[in-house]
Amino acid sequence: MSGNELLVNAAGRKVPNIVNGQEQVPFMGVAAYGPAGAKQAPPIRSCKDYPDNGDKRVPDLATALERCGLRDGMVISSHHHLRNGDQVALAALQAAAEMGAKDLMWFPSASFPCHEPVIDLMDKGVVHHIEGSMNGPLGAYCSAGRMRGLGVLRSHGGRWQAIQDGEVKIDIAVIAAPTADPFGNADGSHGPSACGSLGFALADSIYADHVIVVTDKLVPFPCIPWQIQGNSVDCVVEVDSIGDPSQIVSGTTQITRSPDRLLIAEYVARFIRDAGIMRDGFSFQAGAGGIALAFVRFLKEMMQQSRVKARFVRGGSTQYLVELLKEGLTDYILDGQTFDLAGVASIASDPRHVSTSPFTSYNYHGKGNFASMVDASILGATEVDVNFNANVNTHSDGILLHGIGGWQNCLFAGCSILAIPSFRDRIPVIVQEVTTMTGPGELIDVVVTERGIAINPRRRDLLDRVRGSDLPLRPITEMKDEVERIMGGAPQPARLTDKPVAVVKWVDGTVLDTVWQVEP
Amino acid sequence: MPQKGSKKPLRRGEAGRRGDDVRSDTHVSVEIRDSGGLQIRMTSKVAAFYGESIKETADIVLGELTVKHAAIEIDDKGALPFIVSARIEAAARRAGCDGVALPERTVVARQTPRDRLRRSRLYLPGNEPKFFINAGLHRPDGVILDLEDSVHPDEKDAARILVRNALRTVDFHGAERMVRINQLPLGLDDLDDVVPEAPNVILIPKVEHADQVREVQKRIEKLQKSGDNIQIWLMPILESALGVEHAFEVAQAAKSVVAITIGLEDYTANLGVPKTVEGIESLYARTRLANAAHAAGVQAIDSVFGDVGDEAGLRAWGSRSRALGFEGMGCIHPRQIRPIHESFAPSQAEIDKALKIVAAFEEAEAKGLGVVSLGTRMVDPPVVLRAQRLVEQIKRAGLVDAERAGPGGIR
Lengths: 520, 411
Prior knowledge:
heterodimer; A: alpha/beta; Glutaconate Coenzyme A-transferase; 15 helices; B: alpha/beta; 8-stranded parallel barrel; 14 strands; 18% strand; disordered N terminus; disordered C terminus
């Protein structure tokens, strides 16, 4: 199914012209591609075909799939708000397998190690391929070239764009809901399996042909608040449990204890302060990684000292963002996903803690989105090269390691910052050229490591703003050379074949890079 | 005698650590054989990037040790080259091989001044190599590669090789390079490996008599026969009641002594009293030590503060320590460095006053006046002297730092 021709795109990367039978547009540059046409739409439905009393309950997933007309080759989607505790996506695919379905495309918003049994379903021909993040065993399976179709990696915004633009047409969306009513209204912030926001499932609910809501806490109509509207929902399935709460959110998210990572976090906070980004009414986005959490702590101290307040901060939310809200250091949390119990409790009870979706936050084919309005985003990466291109998808040996998440979308912030160690054990993070390009260097403004801070030469303005500060500013090439000296030379190149196993999509649906099969 | 071609091991040795929780280290076993050449088997989490380099390192190290026939097994968890090299050498030496395999020296030893700022010295356990490479990035005044208490008795040989390699290859980013040797007499043998790598300071543990310091000095001089060596300073550690009683003579034992310090775990054990965060039990010992140090013209350096999580306690200890006449203390975690630097920094009020006094002194000098006065008050000569020393000190620490590093302030 892979493309029969490889083209070189505007980033200089070789990409297939056809992916899973669909013709592709190679990446043309950060803002070069202009879409045309109309958004896709699901078929028109009528009330007359649904119960007047609003009760859409069916006994089990198999019945629901049957009602939704499950057939071979369909696209089945799921969301990842239940993270590694999710039991619904697998149950749906397994139910489909028992019904004899073949060649399905699974379209999760992300996959987790708990989804490893999907490998078995791929081996048996039930699932043809996955379009969504793959890591752990699924990543290794795909990297070894064992998947029948090509993996397609998209950002959260890119997933919305692909659904909205009709690149991916979801036949059946299976939406795990921590609380729902028989009509299909669903909410993520309450219930025994509460996960906070359900934003990743919103596109699926709007654009899929059929929608199944699966819940372990059924409440009588109305489910208040609702994040998913029952008006889009075909069937509601009540189950004993949708997931393992201990794997859905962490009890507490942990700040890194590594002194080197704390140093990186502190450099990031000082940079944001000294570059004048930290001022009244500013905004930032930081994830739930150890460095990002520590950064929030350092920045908080500086905000208190300078009596500065943010207008909004962007989650993934954690207790550290919730602290900012509670202590009056930000007016709002705009939250895409909720990582810990403090975050879940806050989004459920505090009207200033607001659930967002990839449409509001990230979708590139909309009339703007929040990501470019954020003053600074703090991100990770597995590799960054001397041209500031970065990789979050593959390990330096070429094996798929992570999905893109909101990472590509966050590069559009006023100042995008990679907060990363310059090497891990004996694996360089700053390299000559990235193994896989997930983000083009022109959008990556600052690289902060324990060995110093490199500002992208394209951002003269940032350079000027921090000149004369006592920040350890250095050219990125100098840091790369130092890392290679420490490692004992440049690493051996990754051993890859010329067979594509997945592609990395840019936020506009064009193909940015190819993930190649790793040599057996 | 084994027959020609036999694979029966003659001697065997292993070194390094393995296990799922090990990072940035390597486990190596070496079996010396009488034929068959070098058979290297390697697994490494970085095989895809540096597998060839690891094998090359093994070839070089074993070549230097003139090992011709051996089975070598390397289980690597992403160790840096100087660590891989040290582990292979240690395993081979434990298998009975002689000689050393010195990695190429990539850092230049620089002489440090006698009265250098020594507010913080960061302890690095000598057999825990993963902490070495980034230690200097946290800007301690000194790093201590420790061969003594943090190293298990069975690992002294391996740690010595590792520390030697680190001194040859690891950039500590301007921190003064210190090594804590073992208690004598073992510590004297440590010097054989360490002194050629020109550390700046040798810490001598559990000193009770001046003779012990002189013994170390003698061995260093013997090892530094040739001309262009750097001056290696000594910092004796007093860790017993008897040691404290001899503080002054220990401080005067050799010209190379730049500081004396105290080890409170051993000292309080010696007294048979619990060690507290207030430190009342060691007040006498520490004031005695500080006084002896000043009498001998060397720096008085305090012990370490053991609770890494208690930053307020650390700051309180540091402030009291400065008030007693100490100029610095040890740290066991990089996050202790800044609180210590801030605790030992003079306050802004002290700095302002000292600057005024020095200015008044200079004005008086220029006018040829014998008396220095500030406003209506006359300033005594010792006050002028103290102000001059403080200004000198803050210049060395970097005046900007001293101004910006207010209490609790983040730079």
